[in-house]
Each structure stands twice: as structure tokens, then as C-alpha cells.
Amino acid sequence: QNMSDAMAILHKLQTGLDVNVKFTGVRVFEYTPECIVFDLLDIPLYHGWLVDPQVADIVKAVGNCSYNQLVEKIISCKQSDNSELVSEGFVAEQFLNNTATQLTYHGLCELTSAVQEGELCVFFRNNHFSTMTKYKGQLYLLVTDQGFLTEEKVVWESLHNVDGDGNFCDSEFHLRPPSDPETVYRGQQDQIDQDYLMALSLQQEQQNQEINWEQIPEGISDLELAKKLQEEEDRRASQYYQEQEQAAAQVQVRTS
């Protein structure tokens, strides 16, 4: 069943997977079908959006909520006649606003401690999945922004603060600043637009109907199943590119 569930969501890899963090641990996520892919492939998935356990009022306000649950709680608390609940909702909302980068210093410390030396894993932040590793006690993220397409020597970026201004390194983790920072900056702005397109596509994709595995005949051969999956993948790919063109038109209107 897990294999079937994983195959049913593999097509989402082209637009993005939807995972829901919890604020109590760097490997704590609400269990969703998207998490099955990481479990089956034995790929560690981390995030760094944690509540500092020493800040009691935030710990109480956030509790064991996932991100989605916390948003719902904030809305509910705001509508309450109970002043204590209203205050708790305000504290929770302030936490989300103050940690909009989705990485806290407590989370960064926990990440550095949890990730093993030389481990290859996935880091989730701001709806992005990044390849992460640890070298000589320092965390590094694989550089994939469009602005670095011509920067062949730039491979990794250090993750040592919550603001995102890490140091760029080559494949051997030697410092390697970009040769043309202005080109990199423009490419990063293009990447923002691409991310916006991806977010729109993901939102639309979630509204599409998933494969109904119950309708697949029993005893179907692997070859026949592969053909059916490929046909479904081709259909979704065609639909995705059509939606991307429509979203690109929206971006052009938004930025003009």
C-alpha cells in the first residue's frame, strides 16, 4: 500500500510536494502521503522552524501544532471571547511573523547537532527542498538557483544564520565567491518568479483528481501498469505546461 501511495504522488515532484512542519523537532512533520516518498527511499528530511523551549509563552501558544493547525488556531483564538485565548493567538501569530524565514536560531543549533557528518539529506524551508550535507561540523546547501547557471565553481552555500547570506564554496568546500554578483542577483530574481509559478502550479495540482488505484484491475501485469502510469503522467505533464503558460501570463501582468 505504501508503494502505491508513493507512486500516486510521484508526479508532484515536477511542481513540489506539500509537507507540514511541526515546531517541536527538526525531523517532526505531520504525516502526509508526501512523506512516504522520503520514508521508502530512506532519505532524511529536516527543517529548522523550531520554537525555543526557553520561551514559555510561545511554547504554550504553539504547543504540538503543525503549521496548518497553528494557522487555524490563530483564526479561532482571534474570534474567541476569552481574553486568554485571544492573547495566546496573538503570541502564536507574532511567532509566525517573527520567524517568516522559517528558520530559527534554536532550529539551526538543533539541525547542526542532528545532521551527521557527511550525511546527505533534504532540508525543507519556504516550500523549497534543498540537498543538505555536513562537512567539518558546518551545514551546507546545494546551490541550485538559476542565477548560478554560469558559476561552475560554485556548488555549496553554508547555512550558518537565519538570514540566508551564507558563504559560497566549490565542490571541495573551499570558499568560492561568485565571479559576477550582479548576474547572480538578477538570476535570483528570476528564480523568485519561477518559484511563484511553481506555487501556482502546486495549488492547481492539489485540486486535480488523483489516480484511483481501486479502479485498476487486479492481476494487471507490471508492463500494463507502467503503461497506464505513463499515460497518466503524460496527461498531467501536458496539463502542467498549459497551466505554467497561463501562470507566466499572470506573472507578466503582475510585474508590468
Written description of the protein model:
- With 256 residues, the chain is of the alpha+beta class.
- It contains eight helices and eight strands; from the N terminus they run αββαβααααβββββαα.
- It has a six-stranded mixed β-sheet with strand order 3-4-5-6-7-8, with no helix packed on it.
- The radius of gyration is 21 Å and the shape is globular.
Give the topology.
Layout: H1 2-9, E1 20-21, E2 29-30, H2 33-40, E3 45-46, H3 56-62, H4 67-78, H5 83-98, H6 105-114, E4 121-125, E5 128-135, E6 138-142, E7 156-158, E8 168-169, H7 181-206, H8 222-255
Parallel strand pairs: 3-4
Antiparallel strand pairs: 1-2, 4-5, 5-6, 6-7, 7-8
Helix pairs in contact: 1-2, 3-5, 4-5, 7-8
What does the largest sheet look like? 6 strands, mixed
Major sheet strand order: 3-4-5-6-7-8
Which structural class best describes the helix and strand composition? alpha+beta
Quaternary structure state of the chains depicted? single chain
- Written as H for each helix and E for each strand, in order along the chain, the element string is HEEHEHHHHEEEEEHH
EC number: 3.4.19.12
Enzyme class: hydrolase
Keywords: Hydrolase, Protease, Thiol protease, Ubl conjugation pathway
Pfam family, one: MINDY_DUB
